[in-house]
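Minutes, project check-in
Item: structure for the 418-residue chain
Input as provided by the requester:
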Amino acid sequence: MKKLSVVLFLFLITTLSFAQNVITETFNSRELSGELNSERILKIYVPESYLVDSTRVYPLAIVLDAEHLFDIYVANSKLFALNDMAPEQIVVGVYQNQKDERRTDCEVDANSMLTESSSKFYRFIRNELIRHVEDNYRISPFKTVVGNTMTANFINYFLIESDPIFNAYININPSFAPDIADLLRGKIPSLNTNTYYYLNNGKYNGTKKHEFIESVYYLLKNFENENFKYKYDTFDTSTKISSIGQAISGAFAHIFEMYSPITKEEFDTNIAELSPSEAIEYLEKKYVEIQYQFGANIKIRQRDIFAIEPIILDKEDGIYLEEFGKMINRLYPESPIGDYYIGQYYETGNDLKKALKYYKNGYAKISSEDPNADGYYQNVERILAKQKSLKVGLEEEVIDENSETEEIIEEGGSGDRN
């Protein structure tokens, strides 16, 4: 009983914490006036960090079918951000099952085009909802839209418009319109900005639907547009309900792959064969792209710095160690790592005086309680030992030269006496 009470208490605390970051409001839409339901309930999740930094902007996610998808999307958003695999997002969920309006919101006609009522819902999202969020929250340019079955088909109409407003599309078990392939075929080749498209499928969808989703995947697979970045997942051992969580997680991994720290796969594919200067450039460009794409102004992670370390150390005789160290000092001036690399650069070149200077600078930044302190001081001791050895060697060389001179003088003197 005691254990159960503890579990319930922790669940309550988690739920309350989550609820404190979620705002529920009613939006009265002009675009939807005269429709089944012109008043829409919105749930808006705002990360805790929003109030901490007034200059920070956040990607926006519009989640349709909010009754079913909002909580699981927010949970993934928090989990991925906590593990530094995606930026924090502002998430807006749109309720669509208050008066069974979901069907009229997303219906298509015999030609696979939006009807009068679904066109109104489309304009509500594009012209009213997004503007409402942008007017009231700090939003970055990156926007994601999420749908399931019927609403998953609907989100594709934002992609095929002349000026797509979303950057990422998460299609969960979509109930595609018959002519969706032709609509996509006419749009995707002309995309000129990075567009992320996620699609999932499974045998639980039934044979006909499964095969149709798969045919759309084969269409996506044949597009040769580097700006169009798609991912297709199949969950044949899942159920339709369990696949929702799997799909959202898979979509996050795909859409925010660039944001994530360098993985082994990214290193092996994009970095391993680069020269030191190219590896440094790749790292810097990665973070410029993260800021440009997601509005996330984060400095280069230390783990990504360590990821390219082998290239800097092992290639071109370490001539880029100084540049590497200076970059780290700009990013992490409080860290001894930059000074260590610069010291290593000068030690490799036998400039022991400068090497000692940078090793001492690095050691001075470390607390005596730091378990790495002794390791850093060993660099100082090694240089001091080298200097001492070099000094002794020079002194012995001078002594040897003096001895040789004395011997020559003595031999010359003996000759004179003879």
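Outcome recorded: The chain has two domains: 13-255, 264-388.
No further action items on this chain.
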